[in-house]
Structure formats: structure tokens, C-alpha cells
Amino acid sequence: MIIVRSPLRISLGGGGTDLPSYYEENEGFLIAGAINKFVYITMHENFQDEIWVKYSRTEKVRDIRNLEHPIFREAISMLKMGNESFEIQSMADIPAGTGLGSSSSFTTAVLKCLHEYKGELVGTRTLAEEACDIEMNRLREPIGKQDQYIAAYGGIRAMYFRKDGHVDVEPLNMSKETCYNLEDNLILYFTGFERSASQILMEQDVKTKSSDQDMKRNLDMVKQMGLDSKAAFEKGDLREFAEIMKHHWEIKKKRSSQMSNPRIDEWYEYAIKNGALGGKLIGAGGGGFLMFYAEDKVSLRRAMKKTGLREVRFRFENQGTRLVY
């Protein structure tokens, strides 16, 4: 039995500049943090001369080309394991489609598990690059690279996306006290809206490729806010980060009419009126989790109980995708 886990993530600044349509012309930058919510992949030998894949359903195939789950299919194909017999299955702490990067965490975990089954050592960067290859090239998803890299590396990382596709990954020069205060003052609420990020990201991708100047200006501002957030973290000014996050959300909403909805806007404004210093919707938009920064989380929690939203408590996770057993 092999068990691998991969962390989910929250974006802390610069989200959206990690798509090739932007960074190949302008270079991208963002900050993301892995959290202690995970995707788990388990795997063991199967004596039925078949590949069994279990997720929300079960597939049993002799020919890997008949496997319907796209990530499982492409990962097994990439590592040339289509002629073997094994059972592989997934579980997760948080459902998919909630803006925490679960698809890429899933992909890195599957790849790590398959490499372990083959007895192969795989480096962190290689794991992230293989996950990007599957999602962006083989499956042609209109997504960026932050999720694969933060899942593989873990921690709180600054990522620079170069024009040639290379990603420089660096830890933030942030004090332990600032990190602990950030962790203590961030709060996540599940909106109840699950969505696919593809449609919103496709809209951004198409506009960027067509040289839409409004989209380019929007992403330029978001990148600069990512850099400003980095500076705020490194000097320990979390109130400044909260103000940047608040401004970021206003800019982000202008990218697409699908980014928010009246219900989400109502919850957001209610949180701001009840002690949140800043906040935004995590991920591509349209649903998932609202994240707020509040120095008095007790008061904010008390107020948010009236909305009926479910809080998900978390800590930052320093380890990336790794073998558990």
C-alpha cells in the first residue's frame, strides 16, 4: 500500500498572472501558501489483471485508453504504466471546484504515487513540471502554473513566471512572528457555490491573447499588488496586506461578470462591516471560499454565524506533495 498526500492552497497576491497568455509577454508574479487540507491518493497491487481507478465512481479497464478520468488516464500514460495491474483511488479534505487548487494537488499526488509505485525518485520541480504538462498541454486546460508548484513545494512561496515558461520559486523573507500572525488572522468561509474555474479562466485567456488592453491593465495591476504584498509581508505590515487584498478583490471582479454574484457581494460587505480589514474570493472566482483578514476574529466569527456560512479552519503547511506511507 502506498499513500501520498498533496496540500491545497490559498492565493495571497498576484493570482491570474501565472497563465501563459500573460507571462509569455509580461512575466508573472504571485504569492501562494499551502494549507493543511489535503488530497490523498492510495495505491496497491491488483491481482485481477486490470487497472482499477476509484474516485466518485469506479472504473475498471484493461486498456488505459478506455479510462474516462482524464488526469488518471494521462498520468498513467505519461509514466508508461498502462500494461500493469493496480488499484488507485483518491480522497480529499475539501471538495473539488472550491478555488483551493484541488485539481493540481490531485495531479501532483497521482504522479508522486505512480513514481513511488515504480520505485522512482522524483524531484519537486520535476513533479510540478509533469503536473503542468498534463493539465496545460495534454488536457489543454486554460489554467496557470501556481497550483502545481505550490502543491509540489508547500510553504508560503513567491513565484516568478518567466517568458520562457521557467518558474523561479522562492520562500518569502518573512519573520516567524509575521507568519504566525498572518495564519492567526486569516479566516475562510465556504460560500456553498462549487464551480469549474475553466470558463472564467478561458475568458481571461482569450482576452489576453487578443491583446485586450483592459485585461492587460487589470493583470498588470494585480501583479504589482502581488509585489506590494510581498513587500508588506517582509516588513511585517499585515494591515497593508489586508488593504491590498481588499483593493485586489475590486480589481479582480472587473475581469469577468462571472467573478462574483449578489449573494457573495452581500456576504463580503457584511464581513467588512463587521471587522474584516480585507478579503477576496479564493481562486478563479464564481464560488468556493471567501477569505478575510481580521485582527478580531472572535467578533467576525460571531457576526458571520448569522450568514450561515461554514468556516473552515486551517494552518499553513510547510511540506509539499509527499509520501505518507
Please give the structural blueprint.
Blueprint: E1 2-13, H1 20-26, E2 28-45, E3 51-54, E4 58-61, H2 70-78, E5 86-92, H3 102-117, H4 124-138, H5 146-153, E6 156-161, E7 167-171, H6 176-185, E8 186-190, H7 198-209, H8 213-235, H9 238-253, H10 262-273, E9 278-281, E10 289-293, H11 297-304, E11 310-312, E12 322-323
Parallel strand pairs: 3-5
Antiparallel strand pairs: 1-2, 1-12, 2-5, 2-6, 3-4, 6-7, 8-10, 8-11, 9-10
Helix pairs in contact: 2-3, 2-4, 3-4, 3-5, 4-5, 8-9
Question: Can you characterise this structure?
Answer:
By secondary structure, the protein is an alpha+beta fold. Helix content is 42%, strand content 23%. It is built from eleven helices and twelve strands. Strands 1, 2, 3, 4, 5, 6, 7 and 12 form an eight-stranded mixed β-sheet that branches. It has a four-stranded antiparallel β-sheet with strand order 9-10-8-11. Strand 9 (278-281) and strand 10 (289-293) form a beta hairpin. Helix 3 crosses helix 5 (146-153). The chain is globular and about 60 Å long. The N and C termini lie close together (7 Å). The relative contact order is 0.19.
